[in-house]
Every structure is written in C-alpha cells, then in structure tokens.
Design a protein that fits this description.
The chain is an alpha/beta fold. It is 37% helix and 20% strand. The strands form 5 sheets. The protein has a 7-stranded mixed beta sheet with strand order 8-7-6-9-12-17-18, sandwiched between helices. Strands 13-10-11-16 form a 4-stranded mixed beta sheet, with helices on one face. The chain has a 3-stranded antiparallel beta sheet with strand order 3-4-5.
C-alpha cells in the first residue's frame, strides 16, 4: 500500500522480513502514528499476533509464516514453535494454514526466508485477484458498506474486502463507503478509515449501531472479510458482521464476503463448530486507562460472530465469485 509519511509517499506492507527480523506496522498505534516494530524471536512474533500488534486473517498468516522462519533459522524445535504460534489466536484459519504450509516447506528443505516470503507474496497475489473479480460489482454512485478492517493492513497488502473497492476506485468509478467503527477496538474507525484516506476514497465512519439506519435509507452492497469459513459456507468475522448480514437480507441488499481460499476450513463442517475467541473485558470497560463501565459490571467481549451461509450472496475469492453452494469447488 502507498501511504503518506513525513518524508513523502512510501510503498509499504503490513509485515515483512528484513535483516534477520520480522518487521511489521504496529496497528495499535494507527491512525495517529505510523510505527514499525521488529522481532528476532518467534515467541515475540506470536505475542504480536496475540496482542493485535498485527491482525487480520491473511496478515496473521503471513506473520505466522515469518515466525516459523525465525524458528527454523535459530534451530528451534519446529513442532514446539508451530504449537506456540498456533496458540496465539484461535479463530483465524489463515494462522493454522500458514504454519502448516511452512512446516511442510521446511520439512522438504526449503530456505526459510524464501518460503516465508513466498507465502506472504501469495497472499498479496490472491488479494489482487479478489480485487479484479470483485470490482465490477461496484458501480458508479454506489453506497458500499464494510465492517472492521479487511484492507492492506489485514492482508499484507491490497486487502480482501477493500481490494474490490480499491480496484473500482482506481478504474475511475466514484462511490461512497460506510465504514462502521467496529467496537470495541475500533478497527473500522482507526484502520479502514486510515486506508481509505490514503487512497482518497470518499467515505464516512458510522457507529456500529447505525448500520440498520443507513441500510434502510439505501445501501447498494455490503462487503466484509472473514477469519474462517466453514465447509458449508457459514463464516466467522469481526463481531457485528452477523447483524449486518441479517439486515441486508431483510432489505434485499447483496452481501459479499471477500476472502482467499486459505480462509476456507473444510475440516470444519458448519459455523457452529468454529471456535469464537473471547478477549479481555478491559477492551470494553477501559479506554485510555480510564474505566468507563460501572465498577462491578463485567463485560462479555467476543471478538467474532458467526454468520450462516444463507445470508451470503457470494464469496469473492482469487478463484472467482462463488455462491455458498459452490464453495466445494475450491476444496484443496
């Protein structure tokens, strides 16, 4: 992605490998500061996944690939490293997919850095293809809604849900994007809006609870990413996605999920089998070090929700746009 910095425009990725270290944008510091952090121990990289220094399923996968690369370069036990890295977060399928792919490549004697770089580049190539397939769905004058951040930050580069938006805008079509704030960590407000600003794409941030209001007023399509897609097309994405899908169905708004094939988990039969991550209640109750909830009131903080396949118009993948009944075609 191309971003504006104090020293001019710069092309960067969300995560990469340089001089023996895994380098990434600290996404917790955006949109106020563009800060890079780096690690030379796979355990620290796993912690960066856990604490959401880096996030978004494909970026998590690429980061995990680089963590495995570090473990191999330092002669660590790869089975232990794989287990530790997979334990960082439970929902995103790309995390497990990337670790397994790297383990296979390393067992076959692949160079660790080349294998991890190739994995990260494959994610970028898939996102470019997602943009190519999805962009024609977006017409001049459309009002498009998205949720959370499924852009370059979440995918190494380009994005999943934002890939068609970026491509359609680059092709000259003009439209408007509603970016819901995405409580409690505000990835939509802080990350998606930051990316749309970098591209000059017309947009506004809306409260999560205002989605129904704007859908009823007139939204032409909704496009979101995914963290895990079950074999039947049920999928997990950032909390708040399910509500938008139900409202889209009610008002006849096309609802698309943009995701690479690595996000499909054919070993998980339905969405009911997807493990939903529950995060710290302090993400909800504490803001800038100040508790905003009444003392003694606990908070429930699921990071994701599950949306049944019947609400999905289509999955935009690097293999094309698939109806839920067609996803068996991409089983690997």
């Amino acid at each position: 992605m191309r971003v504006r910095t104090e020293n001019g425009d710069r092309d960067i990725r969300a995560v990469w490998f340089e001089d023996g270290r895994v380098v990434m944008i600290d996404q917790r510091r955006l949109p106020h500061e563009l800060v890079f952090v780096s690690f030379d121990d796979y355990r620290d990289v796993a912690e960066a996944i856990r604490n959401m220094t880096t996030r978004g399923a494909p970026s998590i996968g690429a980061t995990a690939a680089y963590a495995m690369c570090l473990a191999a370069l330092k002669g660590e036990d790869l089975e232990t490293a794989a287990r530790d890295i997979k334990a960082a977060r439970p929902t995103a399928n790309d995390l497990f997919y990337a670790v397994d792919r790297m383990a296979e490549s390393l067992a076959e004697g692949a160079d660790p850095v080349e294998a991890a770089d190739a994995y990260a580049q494959s994610m970028v190539d898939r996102c470019i293809a997602i943009g190519e397939y999805g962009a024609p769905l977006i017409k001049d004058g459309f009002r498009v809604m998205t949720h959370c951040n499924a852009g370059a930050l979440a995918t190494v580069d380009v994005g999943t849900a934002l890939a068609p938006i970026r491509k359609a805008w680059a092709d000259g079509r003009r439209f408007f994007v509603y970016a819901s704030e995405t409580r409690p960590r505000l990835q939509g407000m802080q990350l998606t809006a930051w990316e749309l600003n970098q591209e000059g794409i017309d947009h506004a941030i809306i409260p999560d609870g205002a989605s129904g209001h704007f859908i009823r007023q007139g939204v032409d399509m909704i496009i979101v990413g995914a963290d895990r897609i079950a074999a039947n097309g049920d999928f997990a994405n950032k909390i708040g996605t399910f509500e938008k899908a139900v409202l889209a169905k009610e008002f006849g708004v096309p609802f698309y999920v943009a995701a690479p094939i690595s996000t499909f988990d054919f070993d998980t039969a339905t969405g009911e089998d997807i493990v939903i991550e529950n995060r710290s209640e302090e993400e909800v109750t504490v803001v800038a070090g100040n508790r905003i909830a009444p003392v003694g009131s606990p908070a429930l903080n699921p990071a994701f929700d599950m949306t049944p396949a019947r609400y999905v118009t289509g999955f935009i993948t690097e293999k094309g746009i698939l109806r839920p009944s067609e996803i068996e075609k991409v089983r690997g």
